[in-house]
Amino acid sequence: MIEIKNITKTYKDTKALDTVNLKFNKGELIILQGASGSGKSTLLSLIAALHKPTEGEILVEDEPISKLTDKFAANYRLNNIGFIFQKYNLISNLTVRENILTPLIPQNLSATQVETRLQKVMQQFQIDHKENEEIQNLSGGEQQRVAIARAHINDPKIIIADEPTANLDLKLSTNFITILKELKSQNKTIIIATHDPLFFDLEFADKVIKMEHGKVIQCS
Amino acid sequence: MKNKINLYLIEYALKSIFRNKLKNSFIFFIFTLLIFFLSSVFFITNSIKTELNATVDSLPQITIQQLNGGRISNIESYKADNILAITGVQSVNARVWGYYYFANAGANFTIIGLDSFETQYKDLFTKLVQNHPIEDGMIIGEGVKNLIKDHYYDKYFNFIKNNGEIKKLDIIGVFNSELSFEANDIIVTTKENAYDILGIEEEKATDLVVSISNPEEIDTIKNKILTLFPDTRVITNNDLKVSYQNIFDYKSGIFLALFSIAIFTFFMIVFDKATGVTSNEKKEIGILKSLGWSIDDILKEKFYESFLLSFMAYLLGISLALFFVYILQAPLLKEIFMGYSNLKPEFVLPFTLDFQTLFLVFFLSVPVYVLSTIIPSWKIATLDAWEVIR
Lengths: 220, 390
Hints:
The complex is a heterodimer of chains A (220) and B (390). Chain A is an alpha/beta fold and 220 residues long. Chain A contains 6 helices and 10 strands. In chain B, strands 1, 2, 4, 5, 6, 7, 8, 9, 11 and 12 form a 10-stranded mixed β-sheet that branches. A two-stranded antiparallel sheet of chain B has the order 3-10. In chain B, β4 and β5 (107-114) form a beta hairpin.
């Protein structure tokens, strides 16, 4: 599904990733562990085609994605990647509905298609009762569900989560893990970069990768 | 199936305008004000130019004035016969006209003495004379009528002659000329009445007007007249056109200063906008990119956003300018161009909708603003989205 071959990423004089080789299968849940600056986030950004590697190649379903132009990279993200960010990164002053719809806008789908997808994800993540509520009026848990629904609306094959529970209390973090389990049951490939010990002994995690100074030091 | 126009993108752009209410309201206000100001000036300019062109078209081909010691005085009427003998001259007419100062209103009226058989006046006056026999009184312009009515002259007017005597003339008609700029302050009466009110000797005239069969010969005939009567000033309608244009250009020059200020203000806003992408806007662009929007999609959204805002301001500015100029008659601004209007009766700016002007105002404003929004957004969109959102 995802093959990372000899990836090196250098920022000026700093090597953020140093000759990383990894392989993730479809439907796997992968935990990336490591301190700040270990290279987890850089790896996520390369898998999402938001950055280009300095050296090496990334294949997703046997297609190289590391040298895509902006338009193809955007298209790749649109069809394959769902993002869940640390601070949700929802767009303030937009409603729940409008935020979840955002990834669908460039696709210019018919109103029926949009509505069908929207209602499906809102019901799936139990946020449909807040459809027309503005984001700033929602609780942390509700915002989290909106962010996950938004990541899910394009039915992506890969879910990327960058420190998803960093600002959450235990209850919300546990809720998030339940949602992850559900997403995994739908055969999504999920890659999570985290410091949170809650993820370290996750029974349904397929791989736990420890990173340090841009290198993979352990893959179990 | 994909539609050609992405309505969701337009909807998003519209919402984006309302999400940044304060900033966009301020820009919308300034933008509307600028477009209103620019188009008002262009509308006034166009109206006055239309008036002036119409006026110049109705002027005689050649006008001859008597000079005595370098000053203009009344001309002997017999000179008309000598000029008529010049080859190419079609007709020569002695005109009797002058200004009458109505002290109570502080305004000058132009009195024209007319014989119904004379041809030097354009069709307008000929029609007037046919419709209203002026032997018994006078026909007055709309402006004169309104002005003297304020002083209780409804049916007649008492002129004070040079010798202090009063001459009463009945108002027998009012003309609401299309050429209101020219005809608004005019009083048309018989030559006898005009001689009497203006105090001109009977064997003299104010000036002579000459019509020529072939307009190409105007300058040649002008020279022949000057050879025949070197003590005269011979003015062609082309000279007058230039003179009118000079007066107008002078007044336009005053406006140029105001115009520069408006443009300066506009570019200040544009500069501010171009350099002032807020951190929220940066973050939003980063989020959109991570969600699968391409740079093209982001720029399209920014285009719709800036176009909607500036085009709405354009429409509102133009509408306000039309209302201000043609309904309210451009109070204050009109006086900049019509510096002497306090001595002339009021005149109405004729409605002239010039599409070139509308396009000019559009291209001076909307594309400039759209570009000033798109360029910084493009800069942000090409930056590292990952860093922006983290």
